[in-house]
UniProtKB/TrEMBL annotation:
Reactions catalysed: 2 GTP = 3',3'-c-di-GMP + 2 diphosphate
InterPro entries the UniProt entry points to: CheY-like_superfamily, Diguanylate_Cyclase, GGDEF_dom, Nucleotide_cyclase, Rev_trsase/Diguanyl_cyclase, Sig_transdc_resp-reg_receiver
Species in which this protein is naturally found: Methylobacterium radiotolerans
Gene3D superfamilies: 3.30.70.270, 3.40.50.2300
Enzyme Commission number: 2.7.7.65
Protein name, UniProt field: diguanylate cyclase
Origin superkingdom: Bacteria
Chain ranges of the GGDEF domain: 162-290
Chain ranges of the Response regulatory domain: 2-120
Pfam families, A to Z: GGDEF, Response_reg
Enzyme class: transferase
Length: 298
């Protein structure tokens, strides 16, 4: 487990790290609580934060609170407060500030290991609950809610650091596939298409046969190239059915982030472009400009 330890004393840090590292834990040590919080924010693989209440510039209680707000429901994180002054008030304040547990400082080796085993069970359960809440059960992609949340986070970064594009796609004549071959084959088609976009960027299933892909750091030209490659890959798919292999095609709408735009606006323009692709022949990529939808044949 990746653990962050925060204490003003480097001696305490060495003692605690010396108990953990031989057990295979990855330990990151900080005397500055602000630096520790930034590190936890930037490293989602951190699963446990152990902080003394006597730290600066953020107090231990403030660090517990900030870390809990950071994690919220989006990532598993166990927070353990420690203090040399163990009393009912400190314990209550730590738990009320977002800590999951409280230990003496410096902790005993056996107690620390036991509490970390409990923390690992907790974060494993949290991770599974988050996965279930965010994942489309058929495809394993992000569901609509999680996709929109990740897209908003990416758009927030794009405001300061660069470009972002959206691609919305769906399977052409999907109802025909279901009607002629059955819903089991339709599900196979949905899973096959989801496999094409998985790993390309922020990928989600919006519902039915419609998917979305957000590409941080991509220009419109680069996003068009991704969509064109995916279109060709989709046309190469062969879906098994009792009647023989089923072929399919997909249509794509692409939009590029513009300054001051909302996430909803970015996705809406991609959706308009997708509609244009569907009404002008299907199996093609259409790009939405800010004031104009340009049709691009596949």
């Amino acid at each position: 487990m990746h653990i962050v330890i925060v204490d003003s004393s480097r001696v305490v840090l060495r003692i605690v790290a010396g108990m953990l590292e031989p057990r295979g834990h990855v330990v990151s040590q900080f005397t500055d609580s602000n630096e520790a919080l930034t590190y936890v924010a930037e490293n989602p693989k951190v699963r446990a934060l152990i902080t003394s209440l006597e730290v600066r510039p953020l107090s231990g209680l403030e660090l517990c609170w900030s870390a809990r707000l950071l994690a919220e429901s989006s990532r598993p994180l166990s927070i353990i407060a420690m203090s040399s002054a163990r009393n009912a008030r400190n314990l209550a304040e730590a738990l009320d500030s977002g800590a999951d547990d409280f230990i003496d400082k410096p902790p005993g080796a056996e107690e620390l290991q036991a509490r970390l085993r409990a923390a690992e069970r907790l974060t494993t359960l949290q991770g599974e609950l988050i996965r279930l809440a965010e994942t489309d059960p058929l495809t394993g992609l992000l569901n609509r809610r999680a996709f929109l949340q990740r897209t908003r986070e990416a758009a927030q970064k794009a405001r300061s650091f660069g470009q972002i594009c959206a691609v919305i796609l769906d399977i052409d004549h999907f109802k025909r596939i279901n009607d002629e071959h059955g819903h089991d084959v339709g599900d196979l088609a949905i899973k096959a298409v989801s496999g094409l976009i998985e790993g390309e960027g922020i990928a989600g299933r919006l519902g039915g046969e419609e998917f979305a892909l957000v590409l941080p750091g991509h220009s419109l030209t680069q996003a068009e190239a991704v969509a064109s490659r995916l279109r060709l890959n989709a046309s190469d798919l062969r879906i098994r059915s009792p009647k023989g292999p089923v072929r399919l095609t997909c249509s794509f709408g692409v939009s590029e982030w513009s300054e001051g735009e909302t996430v909803e606006g970015l996705l809406k323009r991609a959706d308009i472009a997708l509609y244009e692709a569907k009404t002008t022949g299907r199996n093609r990529v259409v790009s939405a400009m800010t004031d104009l939808v340009l049709s691009r044949a596949g």
